Hints:
Blueprint: H1 6-56, H2 58-61, E1 78-85, E2 88-95, H3 112-118, E3 122-124, E4 132-136, E5 139-143, E6 147-149, H4 160-180, H5 183-188, H6 191-195, H7 197-203, H8 205-217
Antiparallel strand pairs: 1-2, 3-6, 4-5
Helix pairs in contact: 1-7, 1-8, 7-8
Amino acid sequence: MIKFNxxxxxxxxxxxxxxxxxxxxxxxxxKKVFLNNLGKESVEVIKQFIDSNAKADPAMLAHVxxxxxVGSPDARLYDINYTVSNLGLSFLSTFKQSSTIKDGSREPFxxxxxxxxxxxxxxxxxxxxxxxxxxxxxxTIFTKNAVKVDNPGGVEAQGGFQKMMDIIFSxxxxxxxxxxxxxxxxxxxxxxxKTNMAAGKRSGRSAGYSTGFKWIxxxxxxxx
Length: 224
């Protein structure tokens, strides 16, 4: 004759249900930690991705680096920051001032990145001398008049950084970064839930909460 302890079964079943609820509550509580970690790790990975593409296509991205240092992490004229809110994880890019001087010039092109990215026309006037001297198509030009440059970065540079950001968040971030780092597999396969089921059967919600919180908080593009 098989004896069945209905009282213990009820206790175990209740604890397992509470464990599952606690696991979900723990994930919700640890979401902000996860998004902060993801934002911090992703920013540097994204910058490295831009650096690599700048070296491959300088005409498109040279303007977001100091002169003659395309793709160098130390010469970036852009920055990427992230914020975590109730809406989730957001990224924001900004441009920095240039401090280097192009050959043949005497002053830094202070808004180099923003002006070339947006295709803003620039008017150049002599500050000290009465004659303006500059290179154009391999020739040295002398003029006393102001010179207007309609698109100082060229058509390839205009909007180049925005195009790269669009590629990153429409393709690279979702299709490459999350997959190659294993983060998407990690998030879609919470094996720790099953692994800690025995503890959940004993302790219920507290074990589930701790398991869920640690699982989501430890997720990231580095250790996903």
